[in-house]
Amino acid sequence: MKRSETARRQIVDYVRQEICLHGVSKLTMDDIARGMRVSKRTLYQLFPQKTCLIRLCLSDIANEARGKLPGRGDRSVAACTKMLFRTVDEYVALLHTYGSTLLSDIMPDADYRSFIECEKVFWRRQVFEALTQCRDCDCLLAFVDPERVAGSLFDTLFEQCRQGASRTEQRLMSYVLLRGFFKLDKIGYIDQLLDADKLPV
């Protein structure tokens, strides 16, 4: 049993790397068996279908990213600002873990598109809630609608990543955009956060 679990973990790790580099459409179970140096019979015993294996890999990546989300206990201005920027940064990191090749490959595929759409809904909700906390802390300009901003930002980030934008470019774009929604007297909290983390402004 333990050997079986170890083998499953090793295969998931291998397939994660392969799909992030090359996508899913051209990767076959034969390729996976050869790459892992296991028999096809063993592979199918562990993973009866390719779609099950790919979904497990996608979930594995997503769960790692979710585990890095900041806590939401502190309601101070500094904490709300940090939570917002951290949440957006983790989403950008997740997109670039998947990579443009994989995202472009799976979006037209009905077997996987629903998974990505669910992830987009989850992360959009996280940013909406973070923006709402910033609004409640009186950080945001009066015209800012957290729901519209979250939706627009995430659609833009997703499409940019699919089209090959770099992680650095997307981080800078999101920082500049979010900064523009903050009240002038609250922008200092953003500068403190980015300076403490040595992040580009």
Describe this structure in words.
The protein starts with a helix and ends in a 5-residue tail after the last helix. The chain is elongated. It has 2 domains: 2-58, Arc Repressor Mutant, subunit A; 68-196, no CATH class. It is 75% helix and 0% strand. The chain has 201 residues and is mostly helical. Residues 5-65 form the HTH tetR-type domain. Keywords: DNA-binding.
Brief descriptors of the model:
9 helices; Arc Repressor Mutant, subunit A; 75% helix
- Mean pLDDT over the residues: 91
Radius of gyration, in angstroms, nearest whole number: 20 Å
- Ends apart, CA distance between termini: 50 Å
Work out the count of structural domains: 2
Low-pLDDT parts are none
* Beta fraction: under 5%
Q: What spatial form do the alpha-carbon principal axes imply?
A: elongated
Structure summary, number of beta strands: 0
The share of residues in helices is: over 70%
* Total of helices: 9
Describe the main β-sheet briefly.
Answer: none
SSE class: mainly alpha
Q: Can you write the helix and strand succession as a string?
A: HHHHHHHHH
List the helices and strands and how they pair.
Blueprint: H1 2-22, H2 29-36, H3 40-46, H4 50-66, H5 77-106, H6 110-136, H7 146-162, H8 167-179, H9 187-196
Quick synopsis:
Keywords: DNA-binding. The chain is mostly helical. It is built from 9 helices and no strands.
